[in-house]
Amino acid sequence: MTDIAITGEFIKLDALLKFANLVSSGGEAKIRIGEGEVLVNGAPCVLRGKKLRQGDTVTLDGQTVRIVLE
Question: How many structural domains is the chain composed of?
Fold first, then answer.
């Protein structure tokens, strides 16, 4: 598991996928989220704008990242 530090209170799911280099573009993020391939805290999430906060985890293609505050 990799920690991803954010500076604000939250980060949206699609932005996190790009920020953490789990996808190469916003378009890819939209597709992967829409197809239910992304897990948030272990459950599939299809909401691109899902707000992720400290302690949340995101998994895609076997890679998991955890949100921490900077």
Answer: 1
Q: Which domain holds residue 38?
A: 2-69
Instruction: Give the CATH number for residue 23.
Output: 3.10.290.10
Residues 6+ apart with CB under 8 A from 31: none
9 Cβ contact partners less than 8 Å away, ≥ 6 residues apart: 53
Give the bridge partners for 59, in sequence order: 39, 64
Instruction: Give the pLDDT confidence score for residue 12 in this predicted structure.
Output: 97
What pLDDT is attached to residue 39? 98
Residues of the chain predicted below pLDDT 70: none
